[in-house]
Design a protein that fits this description.
With 751 residues, the protein is of the alpha+beta class.
């Protein structure tokens, strides 16, 4: 009985224990079910985290374009290499989706990536990783490299579409445009690493924040193998691409500059070169380049370049005799210019000083007029002029012309230059370009006042900034006047005198003359301070420059060229400068369709508003005025016109009328490059001009209906090239006729 009693109590105790345990589990279950938490952790969030996936949608970095919409910098498609290294992600009996043999995989990948086997293997064997990337050497892969790796059929190796910064024009304006560099950074939202592109210099760095854009994210729920869970949510936050920046830069003029600079750089081996081209009427910078330069795609040349500054804006020079332009302008404006008065050239003793000012030939040219002195670039003439002008008045005009002040150009470290004011001797030296320092861009800015009837224009490089996500223009820049340091009458006198330095027999700028165009400008020769604080001396040790404009009657371009320490080998210091200037100025004026004969006197007419009217009604009206008319589209109702309404246009020029529908390709013969590019942009075609000057042939027949962006090659030649080709054809035809006369025909039997 006792034993039976104990057994019953034991069974009862066990029943109570297990019943209590069950109640505890059930209670705990209901508590967790109702609260969703345990030990302070949110189980719902913890479970969701096991299935939650987030994928970065890369934003496209904004494009940098020239004034005609041609690409200077853009993101282009590339590929990113990823390896799955967790064996559990592969299913038994199926093809493995993880890296099976890390050593062999590393060996194969090393053939295609810029990395060693050891570096790759270290990534593949990363402890605890499920998927790995390969940093900078696994990103930015070309399609060709990606295809070659795929052919190896390596298990666990995958590719994602990516992008990299691409500069299709190579070293084109590289110190102005700059470059953007990709680095691996951690994304806090996804706790993963990604490549972020950041501007390092130039426009890329200055506008990095708005070029960068904002990445998007794709959120979804998936199982451990990455498959989407049925009924799960799927959210996408779209990426916002960076803003596009349209510059005032003209790709064609920049190419003229780069081609001329490369020729001179290779020929004379100078230490440095800089060229700036501007529109004096607006202040727009059309080209800006320097040597040595670099290709922003590879940046291989950068370690060899001692200075990474944009020489036009971030570094200073002693301007040499180009500064005399503005000393002359100040003297004329204040009635202190006596062109026919005489002075003794050769040397000038500064007041209250032992310093002697000497002319560049050391001995002068005897007693000559101040006009001749200026044409010969006499320092002594300027020193005597300063006696009448006065140092205080001169410094007042130095400030009016913007020297010693930043121009406000887009750069994070623009130089302002230093104008010496401590004593009269330094101020007199400044008047002929020695001692004080300026930037090339300040010289160009001041020159706009001479070219633009006394009105000085602010130089600028950004035309507009556009949000590609909405198409909205978020910033549009307009020409800005900086005051009138001199009158229009003074500006005209200065232009005439500068033009005489090119045309008179004793002028220092004779080498800068251009056929069919009048040129005005001033040469400069400046000494360069060495590391010891003293000046280098010798014909191969100077900075040679020229600041000029053309045509003189109505200046359309200002071009500044500086060549530092060229190897002259018997030629004048101005020779390499002139080779750049004349090439750039002549080609650019022809490209802009500036007719030297009609610069001022050509008859013009003002266009009306033609949008909404029909081509049938407008075309005869325009042709009766002596205008050429180009129709874009099928030729019905006009939807756009170029030039715009109220624009004054020279008779004989071309008007573009845009309509709906596909475009019939015209005969481009004798079209200028400017007109070809306008037609391309309005018609949304892919025209590929080759050469300079005017169109002579095209590879697609006129009259072809263009329904796609198939490239159309258009050959351009300068008038000189056309003449030479014509002469060669004539000579060849004459030779063939002579040969036919000299060699009698033979019969079949004789043959």
């Amino acid at each position: 009985m006792k034993q039976q009693f104990v057994s019953k109590w034991g069974a009862f105790a066990l029943l109570v224990f297990f019943a209590g345990l069950s109640l505890l589990f059930i209670g705990r279950f209901f508590i967790i079910q109702s609260s969703g938490q345990t030990h302070g952790e949110d189980l719902v969030l913890k479970a969701a985290a096991q299935y939650e996936r987030q994928y970065i949608l890369d934003a496209k970095r904004g494009e940098i374009l020239d004034r005609n919409g041609r690409v200077i910098a853009e993101d282009t498609q590339s590929f990113r290499l990823v390896a799955t290294v967790d064996e559990s992600l592969s299913q038994v009996g199926r093809k493995p989706i993880h890296v099976v043999d890390p050593e062999e995989t590393a060996k194969v990948l090393a053939k295609y990536l810029n990395a060693t086997e050891e570096q790759i293997l270290e990534r593949l064997l990363k402890p605890g990783a499920k998927q790995v990337e390969f940093g900078s050497y696994g990103r930015g892969l070309t399609y060709e490299t990606m295809a070659l790796i795929k052919e190896e059929e390596l298990p666990g190796i995958f590719f994602y579409s990516d992008s990299k910064r691409y500069y299709p024009n190579g070293s084109f304006a590289s110190f102005l445009i700059g470059y953007a560099k990709s680095d691996e950074v951690k994304d806090e939202r996804t706790d993963t690493y990604k490549m972020q592109t950041t501007g390092q210099m130039g426009v890329e760095a200055y506008y990095d924040d708005i070029l960068e854009g904002t990445d998007g994210y794709e959120n979804y729920q998936a199982d451990r193998r990455g498959y989407l869970l049925p009924g799960s949510t799927h959210f996408i936050t779209e990426a916002k691409d960076g803003y596009n920046i349209k510059l005032t830069l003209d790709k064609t003029i920049e190419n003229f500059v780069d081609d001329a600079m490369t020729r001179v750089y290779d020929k004379y081996d100078p230490q440095e070169m800089v060229v700036v081209v501007a529109d004096p009427n607006t202040g727009e910078i059309l080209a800006m380049s320097q040597r040595p330069t670099f290709d922003p795609n590879t940046r291989a040349e950068l370690p060899k370049i001692s200075s990474w500054l944009n020489q036009a804006t971030e570094d200073t020079i002693e301007p040499g005799s180009t500064m005399k332009i503005f000393t002359l302008a100040a003297a004329i404006e204040t009635n202190n210019w006596l062109p026919n008065a005489q002075y003794k050239s050769g040397q000038y003793k500064m007041p209250n000083s032992m310093r002697i000012v000497r002319d560049h030939n050391q001995v002068g040219w005897g007693t000559i007029s101040f006009l001749e002195g200026f044409q010969r670039s006499s320092n002594v003439a300027i020193a005597y002029m300063m006696e009448r002008l006065g140092t205080a008045t001169f410094l007042e005009y130095v400030e009016k012309f913007g020297f010693g002040q930043k121009t406000g150009f887009i750069t994070k470290q623009e130089a302002s230059g230093v104008i010496l004011k401590n004593n009269p001797q330094d101020i007199i030296s400044t008047a002929f370009g020695q001692g004080s320092t300026v930037t090339p861009l300040q010289l160009v800015q001041a020159m706009t006042a001479i070219a633009n009837e006394g009105v000085m224009m602010k130089p600028y490089i950004v035309d507009e900034i556009v949000d590609p996500n909405t198409g909205k223009v978020v910033e549009a820049n307009e020409p800005t006047q900086l005051g009138t340091p001199i009158s229009a009458e003074t500006a005209q006198q200065v232009k005439d005198i500068l033009a005489s330095t090119v045309t008179v027999a004793h002028g220092t700028a004779k080498q800068f003359a251009i056929d069919n165009y009048s040129v005005a400008g001033k040469t400069g020769t400046a000494q360069i301070v060495n590391e010891n604080g003293t000046y280098d001396w010798g014909s191969d040790e100077f900075l040679y420059s020229f600041l000029g404009m053309a045509p003189v009657e109505d200046p359309q371009l200002i071009v500044y060229v500086a060549v530092q320490k060229p190897k002259l080998e018997g030629v004048a210091g101005s020779t390499p400068v002139a080779e750049v200037f004349t090439s750039v100025m002549e080609n650019s004026l022809k490209y802009l369709n500036i007719d030297p004969a009609n610069t001022v006197t050509a008859e013009t007419t003002k266009l009306e508003q033609y949008v909404g009217q029909t081509v049938a009604a407008v075309q005869p009206q325009l042709e009766s005025l002596g205008l050429d008319v180009s129709i874009i589209g099928e030729g019905g109702t006009i939807t756009a016109q170029y030039p715009a309404a109220e624009t004054a246009i020279v008779l004989g020029d071309r008007v573009f009328l845009q309509t709906d529908g596909p475009t019939v390709l015209p005969d481009f013969t004798n079209w200028s490059l400017r007109h070809i590019l306008t037609f391309e942009q309005l018609a949304n075609l892919n025209l590929v001009p080759v050469g300079e000057g005017y169109a002579v042939s095209q590879n697609v027949e006129p009259g072809t209906l263009m329904t796609s962006r198939t490239p159309v090659d258009i050959l351009l030649q300068t008038p000189q090239e056309q003449y030479m080709n014509s002469e060669a054809s004539t000579e060849q035809a004459t030779d063939e006729e002579t040969q036919q006369v000299a060699e009698p025909e033979t019969s079949d039997e004789q043959q």
